[in-house]
Design brief:
Layout lengths: L4 H12 L4 E4 L10 E12 L6 E19 L1 H18 L6 E15 L1 H9 L3 E3 L7 E10 L4 E4 L4 H11 L11
Parallel strand pairs: 3-4, 4-6
Antiparallel strand pairs: 1-2, 2-3, 5-6, 6-7
C-alpha cells in the first residue's frame, strides 16, 4: 500500500518529534509550510560550580517541510528563498551562538531533472563576526516518492539520511548470509 504525502509527513514528523519541537500550520496556502520543527541545544561548561561558567555554546536547527505533487524549478526556488528568509529571521548571533542550521525537507511525488540538479547544487552559508558569533548553514533534502529516490545538497546529508531511514525499503537479511 502506497503512502500519501500527508501520511509520509506524519511518519517523518513522528521521527523528528523525539528531539524537535513540532509546529503544524493550519493554513496550506502557497506561502506556508504544513509543518516546522525546531531544535535547541545549550551546553554550559563549568569550573567547579554553576557559578563559574567557563563557556556556553548554543546550537539551533529550523526545519521546514514542504509537500507537492510535482516539484519544478520555480517552485523549488520559491521554497528555498522562503525557508532561507524565515530561517535567517530566527538566527540571533551572539557570543554564545555556535551554529544555526536552516533545513528544507521536500516530499514530492515527482521531481523535474532540473530541480534535482538545483537540489544538489544549492549552497548557502553565512558567518557572523568572522564566526566569533557563529555561523548559519542551509540544508536541503528531497524525496521523490514515485521512484523512492532521495536527494540532498552537500550540507543536507543528515536530513537525507533521516528520509532514507524512514522511507527506504528495508532489505531483509537472513542469518548467516554473506
Amino acid at each position: 500500500m502506497e503512502l500519501t504525502l500527508t501520511q509520509r509527513l506524519n511518519k517523518l514528523l513522528d521521527a523528528y518529534s523525539h528531539c524537535y519541537d513540532i509546529s503544524r500550520s493550519e493554513e496550506t496556502g502557497d506561502d506556508t509550510f504544513p509543518a516546522t520543527a525546531t531544535y535547541y541545544l545549550r551546553d554550559d561548561n563549568y569550573l567547579i560550580s554553576k557559578q563559574h561558567v567557563l563557556s556556553t555554546v548554543e546550537q539551533y536547527e529550523y526545519v521546514y517541510f514542504f509537500l507537492c505533487d510535482h516539484l519544478d524549478v520555480p517552485t523549488l526556488r520559491k521554497q528555498i528563498a522562503l525557508s532561507q528568509q524565515l530561517g535567517l529571521s530566527n538566527v540571533k548571533p551572539s557570543k554564545t551562538h555556535m551554529c544555526s542550521y536552516v533545513t528544507l525537507v521536500v516530499l514530492a511525488n515527482t521531481i523535474d531533472p532540473e530541480a534535482k540538479q538545483l537540489v544538489r547544487h544549492t549552497r548557502y552559508r553565512k558567518n557572523y563576526l568572522l564566526t566569533l558569533h557563529g555561523w548559519m548553514e542551509y540544508h536541503l533534502a528531497a524525496m521523490e516518492c514515485s521512484s523512492n529516490s532521495f536527494l540532498s545538497n552537500p550540507a543536507g546529508k543528515e536530513a537525507r539520511k533521516n528520509l532514507e531511514r524512514n522511507f527506504a525499503p528495508q532489505e531483509k537479511k537472513k542469518k548467516g548470509a554473506k
